[in-house]
Each structure stands twice: as C-alpha cells, then as structure tokens.
Prior knowledge:
The structure holds two protein chains of two kinds. Helices cover 35% and strands 26% of the residues of chain A. Chain A has nine helices and twelve strands. In chain A, helix 4 runs antiparallel to helix 5. Chain A is globular, with a radius of gyration of 18 Å. Chain B is mostly helical. Chain A binds chain B through residues 52-54, 73-79, 81-83, 85, 90-96, 99-100, 102-104, 106-108, 134, 136, 154, and chain B through 68-69, 72, 204, 207-208, 210-212, 214-215, 217-223, 260, 265-267, 325-327.
Amino acid sequence: MSSALLQASRLSIGYPPALIASDINWMVQEKEVVAVLGLNGAGKTTLLRTLAGLQAPVAGEVHINGNNIAQLSAQELAHRRSFVMSGRQHVVGEVKVKELFAMTQAATQTKSVISSVQQEASALMQLEKFYERKLHTLSDGEFQRVMIARALVQQTPLILMDEPTAHLDVVHTMETFLHIRSLPELFGVGVVFSTHDIEKALQIAQRCIVLGSKGVVYQGSPDELIRQQVISDVFSSDTVHFNNQTRRFEYSRP
Amino acid sequence: MPLLGLLLLADIFLGSVWLSPATVFQTLFEGYHTDSAAGLIVWEARMPRAVTALCAGMVLPVCGLMMQTFFRNPVAGPDILGVSSGAGLAVAILTMGAGLTGWTATHQVSLILAAIAGSVAVLLLMLVIAGKTRDAVTLLIIGLMVGAGVSALSGILQYFSNRDALRSFLLWSFGSLGGVTWTELIILLPAALFVVLLSWLMAKPLNLLLTGEQYAFTMGLSVRRARLLLVFVTGAGAGLVTAYCGPIAFVGIAVPHIARMIWDTADHRTLVPATAVSGAAVMLLCDIIAQLPGYQTILPVNIITALLGAPFVIWLLVRSRRINNYF
C-alpha cells in the first residue's frame, strides 16, 4: 500500500492544556493542493506548525511519506517538508536572495540537482533580477515570491505555507495563488496552505480542511464543502454570509 | 591581508619611545634578545603587544558577530550584553575575593577559566531572557541592566578589598594590550585561533539562524544544540580575551558591521574570517594611536576603541533609523 504524502491520525493540536482541535484524521496525497481555512484564532497556524514538526501534537501522530515525524531528526524532516511562514520579520542581517538560496542548499545538501530547480523556481517566480538584492529591500510581494522559491529550492515533496498571501495586494494575491496551483505540476510537490481568502482558495484548492468553532473540523473538496453548507455555516455573521450560488461573500440585507 | 601585515609592522615600528626604522629592523633580524634597550623594547614590549592586539582583535569581533546573529540584534556585543562584565566579576572575585580570604589565586589558568565561566554564565542568563522577549531594544536594555548589576557586584568587592588587589583590578579594568607576556601568549594565541576556527566551523548554523530559529529548524538545524555550542564558543572567546586584556569596548559591536560593509555579504563562511581580519587590523590601528610616538605615555587601548567605536555605532543606528528594521 502506498502511503499518503501527509497523514494525520487522531491528531489533537493546541498549547496544553488548551486544545484547539482534536481527533483530526486527515490525508494529503502527492501533488495535491490543500487549503486550510478557518476564522481568526481557529488554529490554522497551530495546525500547520504541528504538521511541520515545529510544535509537538497534544495527541496523535503526523506521518510524512509514512514516517512518523516525531521520530525524525531536524535534518531528516528538512528533506521531507519545507515551510513558508507568514509575515517577513523572520530573516535578519541583510541577507541577499542568492545567499538565502545558497544557505538552503548548504543546509539540506542537495547541491547536485539544485541549480536547475533554483533556476526553474526563480523563473516561475520571476526572481532572476533579484538575486543580488537584499531581502529587506524587497516589497512584500517580492519577498513572498522569494520565500516560496526558497521552499522549492529545499526540494521537499511537501510544502506547508502559512498565509502566503497575507499583506499582499489583490494582484500579488491572485498571482501567488496561480503559482501555488502550478507547483504540483511543475515541481511535483504537494502544497498545504492556509489563507483568509476563502473565495480564491475554493477556486484553486483540490481539497480543503475547515477549522470550525469549538474544535469541529470539516474536510472535503470545495464543491462538497459548499454543498454541505460548511462554508456558509462557519464563515458567517449577522451582517456577512457566503452565497453558495455565486461563491462569494456578501452583506446580508437588513 | 596586506593591510593587516602593514599595520602589524607599523605597530612594531611605532611606539611611545622613538626607535629609527633601521634600529627596529636590525633588532628584528638579530632574533630574540633583551640585552640592549632596543631589543628589550621591540621583543619584550612591542612584539607581545602587537600579537596581543592581533588576538583580541580577532576574537572579540568574531564573538560580537556570533552574538549579533544569535540575538538577532545589530548592536549586540560582548561589552553591551554584559558578557564582559560577567567575566569582570569572575576576575574580581578571584583577584580581590582571594585577598579577603587570604587565599592567593594569581595563577593565570584559574583567571582564564573564571573569566570564561563568568561570560558563559551571563550569556546563559541572557539566553533565558531572550527567550522571553522578541524585541531587540528590550533585550539591549536588559543586557545593559544585567551588565550594571554585575558591575555593581564587582563594586562591592572593590569597596571591601585591600589596596593592592584594588589597584591591580582597576588597572585590569582599564583594558590594556600591554600586560601580556610571551609565556601568556603561548596560551592566548593558539586559543584565539582556535576560537576563530570554531566560529568558522559554525558558519552554516549561523547562516541558518539569520532566518530565525523556526526557519532554521525547518531547514534541518537542531536549534538547541547550535544555541548551546554558540554560547560556549562565544563565552570562551570573550572570557579568554577579557581575562588577558580587560574589558575592551566597541570592537565587538563595530567590526562585524565593517566586515559586512566591505565584503558586502551576510554569509558567515566569509564573514567570520573577514571579521577576524578586519578586527585584527582595527585593533592594531587603535594600538598605534594609543602609543603615538612623541608622547611619553601609552593610553589604555579601551579609550581609543571607545573614542572611535561609539560614534561609529551611533552613525550605524542613525543610518538604519531603527534597530529592528535594520537587522
């Protein structure tokens, strides 16, 4: 039996003793694009961090390619998944784009085939002319493209992205989603990304996991989730609702 | 590199007592001897002084570089985050505390070990505090407070200690390159080179830490191990130099930035040797200024490094406007 790219079994996440969601059973197949959706504080970042091994699960297990990540070293994990974090406060010290790529290669020791991947990733993200630029001089959109390209350079079968379109304007947001959708075909990777842009996520993701209130977790294809009223139930308020026909958010008429 | 050699020669040729270049040449070629005045000055004063400057100049800035990366703070340095004070307290306990109890501990190895222990202790303390605050400015202020607190403890010892012990401690605390003898250099020079080598071997983890501990982990770095190794290498380096030369300010903060500017890189594989070389050059330059010919006295080198370093750091901060933004 071939194992799934990513598998969560009876997974509970949170910061003990606080539980955010429990008993998640979930699978991501190879070359799949999966969106993690939920309101603010629903636990999207916690879920992604747990899947990446950045924090331990409260209970349950995460497997990547059949290996329990709790039993993998940092180095072994680095060959199996890469991460794109939200925001840009992480990198300090006037690092150049090419230096960031170089340190990623050096860290994961994937030199032989790397240059072609780096070239392809840079070409996709239109980064060739940024090689000599320092990261802190890039715009938010350029920075996000660099970080996605960096994750590709790490050459992992799985890329986790925490709100890759946060702080991006509408043009860069749409472009980033386009890139994410093209990654499985071009680079053979599976992508799990979280976002607040539910309308766009429903268009590009093959499947979604929705973190609802009180730790209820839904999953399915966008069509299923819309048909089962999950999106319109989870993401609604007195004044805002999701229109299942147009697949857009609207203001409710008073 | 050629500049470094030139400065090394200049440091030997120039000094508060004027010797003609010909005399210095002759003395150097005659080999080690101390039976003439020139021989004594060149071989027993200027040479060890220059080699000490080389050692201190390599090690302190490399420690500063590691601390800046590690604490994610452009103005981190051994003297800023209280590490030098930690070494100072340990030395104070040894030199003056020993006087109080009547136990004399002047053995240099115990002095070095004490200074290293003091540095590592403060670094570990700062590490714990750094885990609780993500803000670069807060960390700096806490570092200054820790430094002040630790210095106050030294102050208590000073207040109660006898005159001779106090005098030798105060002289040490001025920071000087002159007090190191050849027998001490036999330890200092290889140890300094070893610290620089270790730091260079840590270049890969240091590079990854520039992306933050979380990214570094996702790229395969065992963060906890790297953190401990860095603390011990940095503490050993800072403690070592501080034990021999006293607290020398500002080279630790300023030189890594000079290296970053000249070499235009953030890659520690280049930055560590670049910082060591620039640091040695800067230190020699400061030492030359400290003992300009024609004046009878030699100023403590700490005064020169502070005089040049303080405006440089201020310029650096003004240029980058905000610490958090720049780094």
